[in-house]
Specification:
With 237 residues, this protein is an alpha/beta fold. The chain has six helices and eleven strands. The strands form three sheets. Strands 1-2-4-3 form a four-stranded mixed sheet. Strands 5-6-8-7 form a four-stranded mixed sheet, covered by helices on one side. The protein is globular and about 65 Å long.
């Protein structure tokens, strides 16, 4: 992806078949990606970015200050999160079938002794996905009835820069698997946020008014989500 430099700021630039310029500051380190209409000149792009520099710096400072976990080794004693609470991991070698169970303050991971960290992590993620699949349809059913909208598809996947996404032209919604680690109200906030995009595509005053109407304390949930530790990820892509 082409890079351009504005002062001390280096950003990624991609031209797309879009009408408006979009500036995104991405976790975990605050790198900047600009999506611009194909017809927009580099001079115009530079001017637009320059006008947003204070906001860009503010977002980068936020990411740099946000706590984050170290790389997970998937060994006994590590802390892993579920619904906003930290649990200690216990890895138990077994000869039979593998399993993951929540018992007291522990996530007990029973796996064959030859399983390496990657296989242990895959098993834990599968368990996380199962738990989110149990809770997500309940929230979707609740809020699609209240909002009178019907998504064509709701899926779960790991996303590196978004908690959720909504493709309004197809009504397809994706929810980030990482939300299973956050407090339940954070998941509900993202569900409502994405469903309201089926009523209003942009983050404009109408969108905010709809959020205020249906989930008056959404700002508190957003703040809580933003303060939670970021998972360790190999973010380059």
């Amino acid at each position: 992806m082409p890079l351009i430099t504005i002062g001390e700021l280096t950003l990624e630039l991609q031209h797309k078949g879009i009408k408006n310029l979009h500036i995104n500051v991405l976790p975990p380190d605050g790198r900047v990606r600009v999506s611009a209409p194909a017809s927009l000149s580099e001079t115009a792009i530079r001017m637009a970015v320059a006008r947003r520099l204070p906001w860009i710096r503010q977002q980068q400072t936020h990411f740099q200050a946000q706590p984050r976990q170290s790389e997970r080794q998937m060994c006994s004693g590590e802390t892993h999160y579920l619904w906003g609470r930290g649990y200690r991991l216990e890895v138990i070698p077994v000869e039979g079938a593998h399993s993951v169970k929540l018992q007291g303050g522990w996530i007990r991971l029973r796996v064959p002794a030859h399983y390496d960290a990657a296989k242990r992590e895959a098993l834990l993620l599968s368990w996380y996905r199962q738990l989110l699949r149990q809770r997500l349809p309940i929230l979707i059913a609740k809020w699609q009835a209240l909002l009178k909208v019907t998504p064509s598809f709701v899926g779960i996947k790991r996303m590196k820069t978004l908690w959720g996404s909504c493709k309004t032209d197809t009504a397809r919604i994706w929810i980030n698997l990482e939300l299973v680690k956050k407090p339940p109200e954070c998941l509900e906030f993202i569900v409502v946020h994405e469903l309201i995009h089926l009523l209003e595509r942009k983050h404009n005053q109408r969108f905010i008014a709809l959020m205020d109407l249906h989930l008056p304390n959404w700002r508190e949930h957003r703040e809580k989500l933003n303060k939670m530790p970021l998972a360790f990820n190999r973010w380059g892509y």
